[in-house]
Amino acid sequence: MEQSVVLICVDPSKHSDYALDYYLKHVHKDGNVVEVVHVPEFWDCYGPMEGPSPGRLRELRQETAQTTAALRDKVTNILTAAGVQAKFEALQGMEPWETVLDFARKVNATLIVIGSRGMGKVRRTFLGSVSDSVLHHADCPVLICRHPHVQGQH
């Protein structure tokens, strides 16, 4: 029997926490291969004449690295406490949804789990939604978890 490869997308939000918790409580099965991915802010697209100053870019990259390390530790601790072995990958890319889907194809994911911030239709239309884009372009099922007790940012 083929192993299920579950790709769980995480970020520092409470929506992401809920998606991880939902997966562990309601979906996880022994034998699943769990891959956890985070796509941090991408700061390498700015040239010397646009965006933040070089000094500020260094600060932003350092803050992003610290946030990613803290997220890795937190998620690893949660998974370890639940008895789930997983790999954590911080992926680099300008478009998080494309980066997630490229990785999903690479590991032959059979399910993608992702949180939703619950933005309204208008805001989602203008800002885009990583979870919507993953859902519409994925080659495998996608479980979008929206926290039932947290209002979205409308």
From TrEMBL:
- InterPro entries to which the protein is assigned, alphabetical: Rossmann-like_a/b/a_fold, Universal_stress_UspA, UspA
- What domain of life is recorded for the organism? Eukaryota
**Residues annotated as domain UspA:** 6-146
The protein's name: UspA domain-containing protein
Species in which this protein is naturally found:
Batillaria attramentaria
